[in-house]
Design a protein that fits this description.
- By secondary structure, the protein is α+β, with helices and mostly antiparallel strands.
- It has one domain: 3-Layer(aba) Sandwich (NADH Oxidase), CATH 3.40.109.10.
- It is about 40% helix and about 15% strand.
- The protein has eight helices and six strands; from the N terminus they run H-H-E-H-H-H-E-E-E-H-E-H-E-H.
- The strands form two sheets. Strands 1-2-6-5 form a four-stranded antiparallel beta sheet. A two-stranded antiparallel ribbon has the order 3-4.
- Helix 2 runs antiparallel to helix 6.
- The longest helix is centred in the middle third of the chain and has 22 residues.
- The N and C termini lie far apart (about 45 Å).
């Protein structure tokens, strides 16, 4: 096995006060992010979106296989086709695939099978998970921890888009096989997440939700420092 080439790590150790300021700012910014289902049709700077995708593609991945593909969709006719296909699946979901408890839990969000945001948003980003790779000779190449790796990249992307001043929604019209077909992706590319991107529509409203407290989601071992 060939030894990997190693390079010096670029890392700046910060004073604790600056660390706290950065952590507080980051936490407050992300806490203000909300899923948007009512978008303005105003165009967005696609160069900014591309930069955010580049940031997402810097995420860590199993054995550094980088098993993701980001497809940016802006063409109105294609967005229309995606909407129609997504609504067909969602109609099946709300019509019987999802049990009554699932539908009850969704009720406070005001969702149904109608997905106009897929056309309203100026662009859509479809994240695909590459189940396996193909080398230069066309042979199949194994990938590892693809779900976890692509999930991390999706988190990077949502954070980057939010920091750049764009609104987003995480949409999973299960099953999502139609996305690969409409976007001409090979079989190894499995649709993972559909993200409408844009600006909120004027007067946009979101559900009044309360997040779990830190105490309910965080545990520190007895020898650790839970706060300071």
């Amino acid at each position: 096995m060939q030894e990997p080439e190693m390079i010096p790590l670029e890392f700046q150790r910060l004073p604790e006060d600056e660390m706290r300021l950065r952590a507080d700012d980051y936490g407050q910014r992300l806490a203000s992010r909300r899923s948007v289902r009512s978008f303005s049709s105003d165009s967005v700077p696609l160069g900014v979106v591309r930069t955010c995708i580049e940031a997402a593609a810097s995420a860590p991945s199993g054995a550094h296989k980088q098993p993701w593909r980001f497809v940016l969709v802006t063409e109105p006719h294609l967005k229309r086709e995606i909407r129609l296909a997504a609504e067909a699946e969602e109609r099946e979901n709300y019509g019987g695939r999802m049990n009554s408890k699932w539908i009850e839990d969704l009720a406070p969000l005001g969702t149904d099978h109608d997905k106009p945001f897929l056309e309203q948003a100026p662009c859509l980003i479809v994240i695909f998970r590459e189940a396996w790779g193909v080398d230069d000779a066309g042979d199949r190449r194994q990938h590892y921890y693809t779900q976890e790796s692509v999930g991390i990249a999706a988190g990077f992307l949502l954070s980057a888009l939010h920091f750049a001043g764009l609104a987003t929604l995480t949409h999973t019209p299960s099953p999502m096989g139609f996305l690969g077909t409409l976007l001409g992706q090979p079989q190894r590319m499995k649709a993972f997440l559909l993200i409408p991107v844009g600006y909120p529509a004027d007067g946009c409203q979101v559900p009044n939700l309360t997040r779990k407290s830190l105490d309910s989601v965080f545990y520190c071992d007895p020898g650790g420092q839970s706060s300071s």
